[in-house]
Amino acid sequence: MSKLIAVLPGDGIGPEITAEAVKVLEALKKDHALDIEMEEATVGGAGYDQHGHPLPPETLDLAKKADAILLGAVGGYKWESLDISVRPEKGLLGLRAELKLFSNLRPAILYPQLADASTLKPEVVSGLDLMIVRELTGGIYFGQPRGIRLLDNGERQGYNTLVYAESEIERIARSAFDIAMKRDKRLCSVDKANVLECTELWREVVDHVAKDYPQVEVSHMYVDNAAMQLVRAPKQFDVMVTTNMFGDILSDCAAMLTGSIGMLPSASLDSNGKGMYEPIHGSAPDIAGKNIANPLATILSAAMMLRYSLGKEALADKIEAAVNRALDEGYRTGDIYTDGMKRVSTSAMGDAIVANL
Ligand code: IPM
Ligand code: MG
After folding, report:
1. What are the tens digits of pLDDT across the range 184-224?
2. Superfamily of domain 112-259
3. Given 141, 213, 308, 331, which residue is catalytic?
């Protein structure tokens, strides 16, 4: 039976990069019997413009009924002055929460062809292959109470709450241990247990879950040190597991080790393996509509979708191999361009991947 993919291009460069991933999926459909149907809907600022809400009910319905979701990016200058409750980002956060996509996998892999594109020395980053597992539906992003209140002295006070229940920590820890078991069996849990009680509990629960995974070597690191270690000696890490906000920050940092944030895909999974797949970069409104954005993170997100939600490992491998070949052939969008390479547009990069499938 054919699988339904919800395609949510979103804002900024979202539509351009998503179109290239769709192009790749269409090619697999035509030439490799991939049995999928794709249906598009708006989200983020586009959802607000069309339906008055960043997560329109028809989009949420489609996302719920789909077997997997492919998302571009949300946000842009145009919607920055809207009330926080209807800003584009709420569309994304709403999808994560409504679909219970608690486990966010953010791999950071350095393609050897791009070693020169990293701002770090090649010896520091060459061979880099790490996976950040970010908790995605809890923590300070969703904790109550939250808001901006008026104090007795007349000044305003902003407040958010960092909360994690044991069950929330346990399920993300298990998700990370399962991934570590399929890799180098090393897991580093990142917290701020020296200051925050919430993450003191985090550390305790991770240690408890560790008892079920005796083959995995577990370590704990404070987040400030982890940020430093990521730029000092990133190859010491195999899998990192951390809270929603720490994961947001550390994954941008890890992305830059690989030369460009334009290369990195992500998967956000529920407890049954249903997932939403998106590049980890944002909507880059400054370059939107110019056909210069790098579509590879989105194309690689489609590969993750085939692997994690559709059970099509061989086709996922095929996309990843095609990306490697296109890089070998010298195709580069502006963000990963170095001297002597072939600078190409968004759509030409998509064509190069299709040609290499
Ligand atoms: C990310 C983004 C989002 C986040 C924003 C757009 C809400 O930065 O996916 O990392 O903070 O989670
Ligand atoms: Mg982020």
Report:
1. 999 999 999 999 999 999 999 999 999 999 999 999 999 99
2. Isopropylmalate Dehydrogenase (3.40.718.10)
3. 141
